[in-house]
Amino acid sequence: MTAKYSIGEFSKLTGLSTYTLRYYEKEALIVPARDANDRRFYTDHDIKWIGFLLHLKGTGMSMSEIKTYVKLRAEGDSTIVARRELLEKVEDRCLSQIEEMQMNLHVLTKKIDWYDGKLDHSITESFDDYLNKEN
Question: Are 4 and 42 contacting, i.e. CB atoms less than 8 angstroms apart?
Answer without folding.
Answer: yes
